[in-house]
Write the structure tokens for this entry.
Amino acid sequence: MIAAFKNLGGIRSLIIAWTLLALLSAALYVQHSVRIVERVAALEVEALYQKLYAYRHWNARIGGIYVPVTAETPPNPYLTEVTDRDVVTPSGKQLTLMNPAYMLRHILQATAGLANSRGSLTSLKPVNPANAPDPWERQALLEFEQGAGEVLAVRTLEGEDYLSLMRPLKIEEPCLKCHAGQGYRLGDVRGGLSASVALAPLRTAGNSRLLLVLCGHLLVWGAGCRLIQRYTGYFKSHISRSQKLKEALNRASNFDKLTGLPNQLQFTDRLRWAISQAERRKELLGVLCLDLDHFKKINSAFGHGGGNLVLTEVARRLAGCLRQSDIVARLGGDSFTILMLNPGKVEDSAGLAGKIQTAINQPFLIGEHEVYLTASIGIACYPMDGTDPETILKHADTALQRAKHAGRDAYQIYSPAMNLQAIERLHLENDLRKAMQKEEFVLYYQPQVDAGTGRVTGAEALLRWQHPQRGLVGPQEFIAVAEETGLIVPLGEWVIRAACRQIRHWLDEGVQPVRIAVNLSPRQFQQLDLAQTIEKILAETGIAAGYLGLEITESAIMHDTDKAVAVLSGLRRQGVHISIDDFGTGYSSLSQLKILPIDVLKIDRSFVKDLPDNTDSISIINAIIALARSLNLKVLAEGAETEPQYHLLRELRCNEVQGYLFSRPITATAFRRQFIAGDPASPPPDSRTPPRGCG
């Protein structure tokens, strides 16, 4: 292994890089392990609570049970006001009434500590002072009186951590038999029932699994060049054939065939019913519209079969985030809706959205592949955002679109201002289409400098929109709209053609131009005829391909490595210079990099901005430079704004630097005046000839 590192060159830097990757992976798994323990504990405490509630509810429904009077079951001294507390059978056996609370406490007493679980039944006004609540239970009971539906917390009992769940118990008709004398009425909160499960056994099991995984990480690090991950997926289905046949017609008309969730028709009906109930009870409703971000990539990579597996798992995770009273439905494709009954306040709906995002962010397994997804969520509430299903769903969808435009992997709560923003975005899209027809765009240029000599070696072409009313508009205000509408493809082609025409103009003036680098959007890079389009533009402008550089983001290339190799190879055969932009943010592997026909790794500005003080950034940059040297590539660092940053990058033997330290993006005229010599033009460097090291 050590010899292999030496062959790659820069053993220390490579070891540091692999160590950082291993630590990052281990840290992510530690977080994942903690979430698993929390989820298992939540499931166990919910199951225990339901069991205890079933015992109590059964006894309450039948009005109590009579048991023989024994030392263990003496007459309840706190039921003396119940006239039929004690009875005698014809055979002379004495029986005493065991009401719901009395029975449940006997059950809890008999099973205390079994299976690392506990339970408690208490009240703010206990009949028996010995059943008074502890401080945590008292606080929960007070919250119930304020309308809370449940309290879930980790607390310490007898020196051990427990996950405790407590929900209110309300007065039912049979309860009045024992508690009417206390002044209770139907529907009043009598007290609360809690269930607790010990966390120590779950944590021990989780730590055991975590230790094994960390040992695996250590072996991977020792191996050096190979990461081995093992995935285990469990998918269970317990729907019997008879149930499927019985419910087939209902599912076909009201439920989604793939996930078994209610469909749009069923969801709308339930929402309409919920609105009528909420109107009568003066309650809130929360409606969440959810879309999976970039889900089309899953279908493209794994087919509809893989996509269906992910959708099914998403439906399962959504159901796991909800209360029993809440409803989740699939509207079609990767769109889901959630109805949250009586959330209490709008912030509770936002809390549910955050919980859902955490669940979606966990990895999905498709065969032997691990994929990650994010979700965008829009929230609207009844009655503030509408009083009918159509309006509420419309406003939730408006908030969803806002979340997408804000960068995805986020949630947004609807506000009337969003309608105005949607109109403004529509105007922007229309203006953008007109700008394409009128060619209202212009290129600015930022120099790229040789770190050793300070000589300008190239420039990056940066797009600006010369809007007739708004003036000069930066790409951050319109590129996202261009991507979503598909205008990015013709716009990107215009940028390439404009850059080549500028090079042609400088050549015609008899000066030596520098290589101009143009950014390719991911959508543009996926075009099958990209190489042919660029070849056509080069022929039209009559410039050598070596004058043109293309910058493709690391994430765009790693989306489909085989396809990227084919496209890049076609461009390199023409002589076009290829750079990987934003390197260090896309998690590319060494095995992928070494097969890519590229010239330059362009270090993302996020690693440069904290120099020279951030030691982690220095280590990462050092590792990238060592990696580039081993692959015979050059390194360009972008975002240099200070002299200390520049000097450090030069000390680290970075080849080229770009940033505000040298110049902000400027017009072609200003760029020529400041950075292009008036010497006669000479042939451009041949990008197909690998550079001689990165020193």
